[in-house]
Write a structure and sequence with these properties.
Layout (H helix, E strand, L loop, with lengths): L2 H36 L2 H37 L3 H26 L3 H8 L6 H11 L3 H16 L3 H25 L4 H25 L13 H35 L2 H37 L3 H28 L1 H6 L7 H14 L6 H13 L3 H27 L1 H24 L4 H14 L1
Length: 449
């Protein structure tokens, strides 16, 4: 593939992938806007307290989505469409069963889950109301995202953005009706999100049942070797999502200790903005991964390196743009969620957001490097980056820095974590730029394990 053809192929995947992530992030932000303006800052804090549970559910979906996408893309790169269909069917059945199991375990334990997440007497009822609606929709959350990733791996990225957009419009309309017109509060936000994910799930399933898919639902065959390979391949990306929930968990406790509930509401605003940035980087990553996996299947290392270079350039441009917007329009962004009349929370959020947004310059590079290792099935390296970046470093810095620098230490801790993680990621990448050999080594080690 020449440079022109490579760019065309990359942008064919990039634009729908990033657009899908933007739409997903924006309609998540819309939930926060309606809750913040229609119910109040305390309700917004409660939704943010609930987020780690949703991150865990989403992370389990990523576990199967990325693992299945990588293995399916490699199989199609080798021309083995029968195996691709078998892997698709098997992973679909496993994910559906997992979603039902999570719902069955969680639905009767709302108060315990809310307490563990950090809800207190002020936010407890809001958290229970929100999770009480979200939990029954867990299967649709998980399967909808999984099918979106597989639709793109199947070669239909435009179809993915179509149904993500349909879900987003549905969520926005229902947020307005349920919160602003019916006065359902956080329950209305949860119902709007759950129904939109149900619609998205049905739309993506129609592609594989009635569409022109290269993958078909077949009689399920559960091969333990394939299951372990799929889980191990997707695990680093799942850890990235789990780590978001863990990060929110540590931040919430640190903020409650040093600032109070107003700080949690301010952090909620930052996490909505952070979600848009991170999802944009994940969109670039998702454009890269199926192409890298495909060319690894063909043992075309030059094309793999070319795709990686294009990904880094895209991340650099997006990072600078997001950082500039965050500095210049911090007040306007905060005002989308918190009214200026709540002057203390508004000013706290605006100043903290300008500090926190420094992390936007770095996070995308870590996501791309980890995603590259996943796509080439260098699982141990990808897992190390995800674990160190999202769990270990955040836990260390958000605990220690506030002791030395107070509030400033809380808001700068994510930037410091990303900087240290990037040093580790760049060092690992410089030592491993032979995809074909790495695929063989990791595949062999996975099989041995």
């Amino acid at each position: 593939m020449g440079k022109t053809g490579m760019k065309r192929k990359f942008f064919k995947f990039l634009l729908p992938s990033v657009s899908a992530m933007w739409v997903f992030s924006i309609y998540t932000m819309v939930d926060g806007m309606f809750v913040g303006k229609g119910v109040g800052p305390t309700a917004l804090a409660a939704v943010n307290i609930s987020m780690p549970f949703i991150n865990i559910v989403f992370g389990i979906s990523l576990l199967m989505s990325i693992g299945a996408s990588t293995m399916v893309s490699m199989s199609m790169g080798k021309g083995d469409f029968k195996r691709a269909s078998r892997l698709f069917t098997m992973s679909s059945m496993i994910l559906c069963g997992t979603g039902l199991l999570i719902t069955a375990i969680s639905v009767g334990r709302l108060e315990g889950i809310a307490t563990f997440l950090g809800a207190d007497s002020v936010t407890m009822d809001y958290v229970k109301d929100y999770l009480g609606i979200i939990i029954p929709f867990c299967s649709f959350f998980m399967v909808a995202y999984y099918l979106e990733v597989l639709v793109k791996a199947d070669g239909f990225p435009r179809y993915a953005i179509l149904f993500v957009s349909v879900a987003a419009i549905t969520n926005l309309a229902l947020d307005y009706v349920f919160i602003m017109k019916f006065g359902w509060g956080v329950r209305g936000a949860a119902w709007a999100t759950g129904i939109s994910q149900l619609i998205s799930c049905i739309g993506f399933m129609a592609h594989f049942v009635m569409g022109r898919s290269n993958m078909k639902l077949t009689r399920p065959v559960f091969d333990m070797g394939d299951i372990l390979a799929m889980v191990s391949t997707g695990f680093p990306e799942a850890v990235t999502e789990f780590s978001t929930g863990i990060m929110v968990y540590f931040f919430n406790f640190s903020i409650l200790r040093h600032i109070g509930e107003d700080g949690v509401a301010a952090f909620g605003v930052m996490m909505y903005a952070n979600s848009l940035v991170v999802m944009s980087m994940i969109g670039i990553n998702q454009a890269m991964q199926p192409l890298v996996s495909f060319f690894c299947g063909r043992r075309d290392s030059e094309s793999v390196k070319g795709i990686l270079r294009l990904s880094f350039k895209s991340v650099a441009a997006a990072s600078i743009l997001f950082a500039l917007i965050s500095q210049v329009f911090a007040g306007e962004i905060v005002e989308l969620f918190i009214s200026r009349s709540d002057s203390h929370i508004y000013e706290l959020s605006k100043g903290a957001f300008r500090i926190f947004s420094a992390s936007f310059l770095i996070c995308g590079f870590n996501i791309i490097i980890s995603g590259y290792f996943t796509a080439t099935r260098q699982v141990k390296r990808a897992l190390l980056i995800s674990s160190v970046r999202g769990i270990a470093l955040v836990a260390i810095f958000v605990t220690l820095l506030p002791m030395a620098f107070g509030e400033f230490g809380i808001w700068i801790s994510l930037f410091v974590s990303e900087i240290v993680a990037l040093g580790i990621s760049a060092w690992m990448l410089s030592r491993s730029m032979m995809p074909a050999d790495s695929v063989q080594r990791d595949a062999k080690s996975t099989k041995t394990a």
